[in-house]
Each structure stands twice: as structure tokens, then as C-alpha cells.
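Teaching assistant's notes for section 4

Start the section by putting this record on the projector. Ask students to predict, before seeing the second block, whether Corrinoid adenosyltransferase will look compact or extended. Collect guesses on the board.
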Amino acid sequence: MVIYTKRGDKGETSMYDTSGAQRERVSKDSLIVEALGSIDELNSFLGIAKTQSKDTKTQKIIGEVQKNLLRIGSITGGSKLKFSSVQTKKLERIIDEFEGKLPILKNFVIPGGSINAAQLQYARALTRRAERRVVALSKIQYTKPNILIYMNRLSDFLFMLARKANADFEILDEVWIGRRK
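Reveal the predicted structure now:
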């Protein structure tokens, strides 16, 4: 199989269903391609963050998130796969676990600290962008509610994972105190 087909050279791409049958040609600047590209960008960057994690459990969790993002991309692209609310509940359990072990926050966290925490904070921002694209797409194309909920929770999860990464590297989160005189 050749990786290049030349069919996208004029700014359009094909959308396929799960059987591999071509559904339609769409512009590469369409909302669906923008949403899929944002999900892909997030997934790729999570691969970088995963390699920098100090904790094998965290690496495994990020790997599961990456698989979920591939599933979400596939569903968004038209596949009939299912996406369960169980995936969101898993994120919530992990968030709750981390929150119980980390110092209570009373201020915003400035992204940074360890390289891994900074990467995870950037992945959080990429998640927010992907979420905005999926929400925009949901205005013109049915989007499973579980996907919207998962994308929203994923940014919270990555925020907590970034805080945990700093703790793993024994680095305190830098907080922003906005009301200093």
C-alpha cells in the first residue's frame, strides 16, 4: 500500500465508514476535518507526554486515553462504534484519587515545573481546542453526548495529571495570585 494517494492534493479528503467504504469528499477546512485534526494533534502530543512520564501507571493511563481518542475520532468521522460513559467515570475516579493526594489549590496553576507537567498542561489546552471543535461540529452533525462529556472531563484529568507529574518530580506547582497589591 502506498501512503500517498494524491487524491487530497486539491484540498479535499475522503471520509470513510468502518467497513472502509468511502462516504463522501469534504474540504480539508471543514468542521469535521478540523475536529478530527484537533483530536489527532492532541493524541500525538499525548504520545510525547507519555514518553516523558516517570510513572509506568501514568504511561498506561495515557495510552488508554490515546485509544479512546482514536475511537472518538473514528466515531466523529462516521463509524458506528460505541463510546461508553464508563470511560468518563474512569477519568473521574483517577481525578478523585489524585486530588486526595495533592495539596489543595486556592489559586490558578501556572503551567510549567517539570517538562512532563508542562507537556501535560499543553495537552490540556489542546484538549480544550479539540473540545471546542467537536462542540462546533455537534451544531451541524449529531455527536454522542458521551463524547462531549469525555472531552470536557479529559481536560480536568490532564490538569490533575500535570500536577501529579510535578509531584512525581518533587516540584511544587507555581500558583498565580492575581490580587497582589
